[in-house]
Amino acid sequence: MSRKVAREETMKILFQMEINKDYSDDSMNTYISEHEFADDEIQYINHAVGTITNNLGKIDAIIEKHIKGWKIYRLAKVDLSVLRIAIYELKFREDIPMEVCINEAIETCKKYSTEESAKFVNGVLGSFVRTEMSNDE
User: Fold this and answer.
1) What is the DSSP letter of 41?
2) How far is CA 45 from CA 32, 50, 89, in A?
3) Which of 37, 116, 39, 50 lies closest to 85 in space, CA to CA?
4) What is the dihedral of CA 70, 76, 84, 24, to 10 degrees?
5) Strand residues in 28-130 grouped as ranges (E)
6) pLDDT value at residue 137
7) Contacts of residue 4, Cβ cutoff 8 Å, sequence gap at least 6
8) What count of other Cβ atoms lies within 10 Å of the Cβ of residue 130?
9) Considering only CA atoms, which of 71, 103, 79 is closest in space to residue 89?
10) pLDDT digit of tens for each residue in the chain (137 aa)?
């Protein structure tokens, strides 16, 4: 399989965690045990979910800052999960090019949410990259 699959499965895990308000390792491990994944997919999922849940406050604060006119609790859970993964990749993964991260987030929204959500996520990530990523350099 691929990193694309691993991203989508990570989104599903984060979605489930958000719905159930259960961000435990047990929740993630149960999901992984109920599906078949390649070793590299499990590695990505473990790192992504672990990093996101351990930095949830920081990641959500970044999202809040860039969703002008919205509150994070009002976002569609799929969109929120996609944004969390994208911010994780942009902030915590140097091996994933920014363009790939943003494109994958948009494509995941198109597949699991709506065209409008894809545009919204693109705008949020664009705002983040323009303001915060350029400040990191």
Assistant:
1) H
2) 9, 8, 12
3) 50
4) 120
5) none
6) 45
7) 104
8) 11
9) 103
10) 588 999 999 999 999 999 999 999 999 999 999 999 999 999 999 999 999 999 999 999 999 999 988 899 999 999 999 999 999 999 999 999 999 999 999 999 999 999 999 999 999 999 999 988 765 54
Cα separation, 128 vs 89, in Å, equals 13
Rg (CA), the chain: 14
Find out whether 96 and 68 touch, Cβ atoms under 8 Å: no
Question: Which pLDDT belongs to residue 2?
Answer: 84
* Alpha carbon distance 15, 20 (integer Å): 9
Note the residue count of the chain.
137
Exposure pattern of 20-55 as b/e (b: 16+ CB <10 Å)? eeebeeebbeebbeeeebeeebeebbbebbebbbeb
Tokens encoding 36: 């078949």
